[in-house]
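chain below, 229 aa
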Amino acid sequence: MLGLYARTFDGVPLGDDEYVISSDEKTSIQARCRCHPTLAPGVVRMMRVNHEYQRKGALAYLAAYDVHQARVFSHRNAKTGILPFMTLVEQVMTQEPYASAKRVFWVVDNGSSHRGQAAADRLSRRFPNAVMVHTPIHASWVNQVEIYFSIIQRKVLTPNDFTSLDQVEDRLTAFEQRYNATARPFRWRFTPADLEDLMARIERHEQKEQNLQQPTGCDHQPAAHALAA
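prediction:
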């Protein structure tokens, strides 16, 4: 996966007609209508957001991020699942340049919508040029779309003060359009060489711990036994 971010796969550079898509879902985005309007920050006061609100529903935001083109595709649905995820895949893979690409790598975590070999087989059956790559378990942070989600959380969804889900969707759509027009790819700094160095340091640490836990071979008697003798 780190090789894909550096435009290689199994040590071979990717071609110009090969792409890397980072995809995931941001679940349960709620529309919370505050009982009193949110007050913008002033010269001497911070933003004020009322703690009482009415729930206006929730949606799941599915996104696919082209790692090297900084381009976002999205699909909104009432909930996550295999069907909503494949709807997003269909949206991306049926348009150029992905439809005619040699290979399109889909980086995903181990969520239930795209878990395991069954999900990889389902993807390749529908689109033979698509290859699914899973992040390690408990390491979804290396999925670059999570960076995009953090931007969404800060710039679009905070403070959460929406009168309806339609308003949430309008805000998301407007932000996507601006992002796709202005964004640049993330400067990913964690390389395969960094991973090898990290694994080597972990291995040295574990070996040191094992050496410390081994018996010393000392055969002296405890003090109480020595006095008794």
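The mean pLDDT is 88. The chain is about 35% helix and 25% strand.
thats it, cya
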